[in-house]
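User: Can you predict the 3D structure of 3-phytase? Sequence below.
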Amino acid sequence: MRPLFATVLLLLTPLSPGVATVTAAAETPPLYDDEAGGHANGDDPAIWVHPTRPGKSVVIATAKEGGLYAYSLSGAQLQHVPAQPPPGPGHEPGRLNNVDLVHRFRLSTGAKVDLAVASDRGRDHLRVYAVDPAKAAAGQPPLTDVTDPAVPFVFNSTQEEVDAAETVYGLAVHGTQVLVSRRHETRLGLLDLVAAPGGKVTYRKVRTLDLPSSFALPDGSTWAPCLEPGELPQAEGMVVDRGVLYAAQEDVGIWRLRADLTGRPVLMDRVKEYGRQDTYDPATEECVPGQDRGFGGEHLAADAEGLTVYETGRDSGYLLASSQGDDTFAVYDRAGRNTYLGQFRVGPGDRADGAEASDGAMATSAPLGHAYPEGLLVVHDGADSPPDGDREVTNFKFVDWRKVARSFK
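Assistant: Sure. Here are the predicted structure tokens for 3-phytase:
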């Protein structure tokens, strides 16, 4: 039975006024988004829980053109899997964006394996990696690429279309199905994972659904987020919980809809900038803020990003959302109408700096050995410290869930 504080920890207000602050117990080595660093730019983590030795669980994280990384629970690097090269001259290389986990997938060989599935926004593919528990327990590289060489494009038909960059973006797993979003579009897609010959894995499309791109406001006007010409408000952060998909449309808010992409999506919460008619300035390629007419939400500062769930029981726990615009995480009740419960940030501490401009996040309530007996929250840090000149530096912070618990009554 989970201790009582894990169930009620977020039902009351923070101990101190304002936003609660927690600190990380560990962090991963810095990633550098330049040629010397292999264009590694951290984005989204997943926590693979070892079935028999939870202290040997592995954090798997994307680094865009830098590929995929596997880390121990201390933050030490276990493996680096490079992204795919360009398919030919002038084409885009692989860029792994988001990652999630499939458990006990049956390969064509009959073996059942856990899979890490990543969206490759450079190639418009899914990449699939088998996780080896024995190698993870031994501290060895645990990932093996089992992607079928003949996997199809997710959203496009030709390589020329892929090179236009409207490709697979966000990703969340639901059983052996994968929910994906499309970059610069409002489209979501549902894919079935399929066992392919030789122990490989491919996929086939089931259906798609388009989220709205413009919105009717209470004053009778219509609003659309300010974006670069030709772009629509995209979704990236996604998580599936008990058959429900939560999707963070970055400049709009968090949607709740059926994970089979049927039925009508419901806008669960809005970003603070919702309804503010900003104006695009082609000279600066930036949006100039307009008047705030009070139609926005109170808890999310655009972009709304990574979503994850912390379970305390079948119908209890919390939905967490990265509020990238103010470097905080909003917490909602996992049950019912997803009532807002509180806010916290990951600040600098003795073992790691804080997390800013956070994209992806993942939490687990599984006990992970003596270091994380009540589970773990891993968040992307978009501005790792100390800085290194003009280099863009990112990494991932590991937060003991007990610290999140203790930051609230």
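The longest strand covers residues 96-106. Residues 20-405 form a domain with the Neuraminidase fold (CATH 2.120.10.30).
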